[in-house]
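Input/output pair, single chain:
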Amino acid sequence: MKKHFWQAILITFFLGVILGGAGFAYYSYRMAQEGYPVSYFRSAKQESAHKSVTKTFIPRKVVVKQPRLNHRTKKLKQLLKPIVGEKRFVGTVLIIKNGHQIYNQGYGYANISKKALNTANSEYQILSMQKSMTAMLIMQQIQAGNLQFADHLDKFYPEIPGASQITIRSMLDMQTGLRIHKLSKQVLSSQQVADYSAKHVQFVADENNKWSYQPVNYTLLAGILQQVTRQPYYQLFRRHIIAPLKLQHTGFVMQANQANQLSTPYHNVPFSDNSINYQKVDHESVASQHNELGTGNVYMSTGNFYKVLRAILRARFLTAESTAILHEGVGARNYGGGLYTKNLTSYWSHGVGYGEESGVMISRDGKNAVVMLSNYHVKKTALPRQCAQIYQNLMQGAY
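Output:
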């Protein structure tokens, strides 16, 4: 009797393990189909991505000594010293001249405790500069005839107040009265993030058709992409951007374990102190990482970012006509499709948050550019000014 009893217990146990494993596999499959990155975050104690906790990015590949500079690079570094010298900038600076890389150097620490240095291949959260890529994905659907600039938001989210007065074009150009003041504190899938935004967004009628930088426009554009293509935003990004360009230093911050050189973000304490002293590691909650859907949760190296933006401007993904139309700057800040129009010959973009900052100045033909990605955010940021100064010097033949 005892023998049969224990046999029954063992059979029940193994059946439970098998069924539990099958259930978890199916759950993971459904989450992946929904656009939910089923992965783990790098930390001393790994925890499931479904758990809403803060995580610190730590570079897996530690570089403690910069490679030797050739004569030209050494000269360029000296010329740049008054702008991004010691204690002036932490991150990586890339300079492109006539389509060729002439400078790509790291400054400061990727992680102070490990004495890991920022390098040419260091990876950073690019923040709002991701919007130019989301805009390109939208334009691909317009070019394919699946969307139109004149489509109104209520076609996709009829529950949003004022949606009948808002078009795809106005969302791309930040010309809507949409505002959101409350973001989810729970970890949501890409579909759930878009739906949450649609449920909690507010419409300020007096501000409609006026320029105002509101990231929720791009979160909802990501949601529209998912409705039109029936694919998660993350899958679209990988298929249409990462795969064709063979990007090796690009991914989503929710899957930081797949990055090799993702720098640790810092800011000072108190934040009003503008010196660079690595006093405080910045933490971004997993919920926030997901909330940045379509607007700022991609990490990249300077080289990978330039490769994508150059491909966008040189009509690799779209026709030349579609590319030009997408980036027609409007409003008080000449914003169009994720880029600001600087003048008749160049664009610029900027992102900031979670201890990181990013900036780019690039010619309209993509042949000349300055990309600056930083893992150190200070209150009185100098990065946009530094980026513009380096670009101006480049175009005047100083480098």
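Residues 2-33 form the longest helix (32 residues). The chain is about 35% helix and 20% strand.
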